[in-house]
Amino acid sequence: MPNPNSEYARSDSESVLERWGVKYFHRLSGKLNKERENKALDASLFDDSIRHFLSVLITDYAAIIAFCIGAATTIPTVLVEWFYFDSLDFYAYIFLQLGVALLSLIIELTLLFWLGLKTVHSIACLSHSQPAESDPLLPGNDTVANLLARAALELPDPVIRYLGIDPLKYVSKPKLLIIGLLYKAKVILTSVAVKFLLTRMGGKLGLRSSFSWIAIPITGIWDAIVIYKVVREARLRIFGHSLVQYISQEILTQKVMDNLSTQAQEGAIRAIATMMVLAQNHHPNMLMLIYRFNSCFNLDQQGDYDDWPLFLALLEQLPAEERFFLLDLLCLAAAFDGHLSKMEKQELPKAFGDYTAVYMQRIEYLKNHLLNGELVAAQSLCQLNFRPDNQ
Q: Does a structural domain hold residue 244?
């Protein structure tokens, strides 16, 4: 069998911040393991309704704390505006305001990073994902802890080259550059802009008694939105990992693999690879899915796995049952990153044909179940049973 790691390449190594987040996850997971030894927590006891309720509760609680962090760290800049705008000369005031804003930003980011890591780990406790363990579902040296640390700290995922698949083949280089620059600058641009520009505008308009204080709730609301997005992405990764584990252990059995022709096995790799390309990202859920399937099949390594027209042509050559198997898998891969891109919406009907409405609805249901932590309901949509009705 080909070594699945032989076609793996990562664009960059772990950043210092990612390594710090991974170590923190390991420490939290060590404490959790001790609690589980004392039967203080057992994720297998959670059904969908309890898991969904707890994940929403944890998310809302984190958003409230994030609001308080953003509001509290904005107060110093407003007070500087309130007390020193008229009493200091312009350059002294700007120097003081920027210094206070920078210190507040450092405190704010430190607290938000801590909150993100704690919250994401709490969500992970609701699933069977173990952030401290090495992971057989990921190529190279990536682990669940790495995936969650990047989500919690809002770090971009590295560009992964696996089996010659280029998830960014349809994304222009100028667009990639702009996205990269905005990603790196967004924290400073959003936080400092709110803290400094609003208070400065309030001073210029002579509305310091009211307008400058708006920066406090606005920053709090922004931080709450940011932490909500962080936890949403983490939930997608955590529950996506659990779902890949389920597919690996319960669905992709030896009997299923023996019933698939070599063409269908190749089509399975192509189904996931083409969704990575049409989604225009390298979401770790998709990477886990394709890595697991490639580990099971004894295929000769070849290129063009991410060629959509070749996948469509291969579909036409397969018997009905194997074609439905690939369409089911295509449905899974499309839902695993939590949204449908414009290209996916345009191209998927070409594969689904007369069953477009059925499969598009299943994608929407599966996506929502993943985000809500409804693993049992999500598992029911991942049977890969060679029939379009999924029953």
A: no
Among 186, 204, 238, the domain boundary falls at 238
Give the domain extent around 257. Answer: 252-380
Instruction: For residue range 232-255, list pLDDT tens digits in order.
Output: 888 888 888 888 888 888 888 888
Do residues 232 and 323 both lie within one domain? no
- The answer on 276 and 151 residing in a single domain is no
The answer to whether residue 391 sits within a structural domain is no
Cα(331)–Cα(277) distance, rounded to whole angstroms?
A: 14
Do 37 and 152 have their domain in common? yes
Is 248 in contact with 292 (CB distance < 8 Å)? yes
Q: Are residues 24 and 46 in the same domain?
A: yes
Number of domains in the chain: 2
pLDDT tens for each residue of 47-95: 788 888 888 899 999 999 999 998 898 888 888 777 776 677 777 877 8
Orientation angle between helical segments 320-335 and 262-279, nearest 10 degrees: 30
